[in-house]
């Protein structure tokens, strides 16, 4: 299992290429961009099978029963599989997650529409996030539209463009179809092209639900959520795959230790998806970027906020900007950015209060405090505890390993520039 873990990490690093050029309107950056995912999956699949793994492609899980010594999985096609531990990687719409969350409405949703098309002559830069207009009406809702664009791996003139928005889900929220109609109207202007000159390769869309109480602790013995199902991805970006790879090393080691020590009760498994103040703190950003219906702030507020934030982060340099662009929130960079925003544009503060509301800000302050606390713990307490770990009994060692990881990842100290 350890071998497989190491191999998986290496494989992913092979295909992740630091070549995207990002133009945020302020400065050009490099970002992680994924090339040829099918190739990556094929390599991982071969490796998995060579180690004795079996893949049931096209099968569907219909129920899971957990017992004292096993979890039994019933497939809709009639097969029955039994396992020591089930990793639920069924994504945002995992039926297990639906059951744990009791079908509760998400706290926020990111809606994405876009396409990959051939025919872009100017195809050498990328946008991580681009916004040029104030709040717009789509369907019956006010939305702030954002854009992302980058060269696709399928050909030199191929380009992927996304339009996305954050909403507070409620009746009357825009439909994907309405957003897609708007996308075809606005994309040519954004990219300086005409639709007639493009050959559409594929149309892309996605719904990304986010819950404030994420990541999701394991609710059942022997079942652990992983990837999008675990809610470990940032509520701001739709970079769930990036987040999955960021946590892969931590999780594969943790799962290995859990299985080896038989720590597969829900409490022990929950330690693998622990509270992370940096993830909880990013929820405020989604709220700040969602247009409010019947708003008492200017329709330009979101753009102004983004502009001043990115301007301050750019002034503070790569150690502040790069982790943020890669979805890693850290105490020092966040505190510096907030301080500089307050100095540079104090007049925006009342609008922030109006936009996100006092309860969200109070909640966020708690996570910000915890972010500082986790940073201190990981910096100063971690080395002391780590030196004692080998003297602990196995369960205690397993649990303390997980606490140390929670401090490190929850404060973003795993991020290396
Ligand atoms: C338009 C779009 C753009 C994206 N862009 C990026 C990006 O640029 N960078 C990035 O990092 N991430 C991006 N993502 C997110 C990324 O795709 C996800 O975070 C990632 O795929 C999550 O992987 P996962 O394995 O957790 O879940 P998924 O990829 O959602 O896989 C879940 C799997 O479970 C299966 N499943 C569901 N229910 C059952 C069942 N009952 N039985 C059996 N199988 C079941 C599904 O068929 C699916 O194959 C994007 C997503 C979309 C939609």
UniProtKB/TrEMBL annotation:
SUPFAM superfamilies: FAD/NAD(P)-binding domain (SSF51905)
InterPro entries: FAD/NAD-bd_sf
The organism of origin for this protein: Citrus sinensis
Highest taxon in the source lineage: Eukaryota
Protein's name in the database: Uncharacterized protein
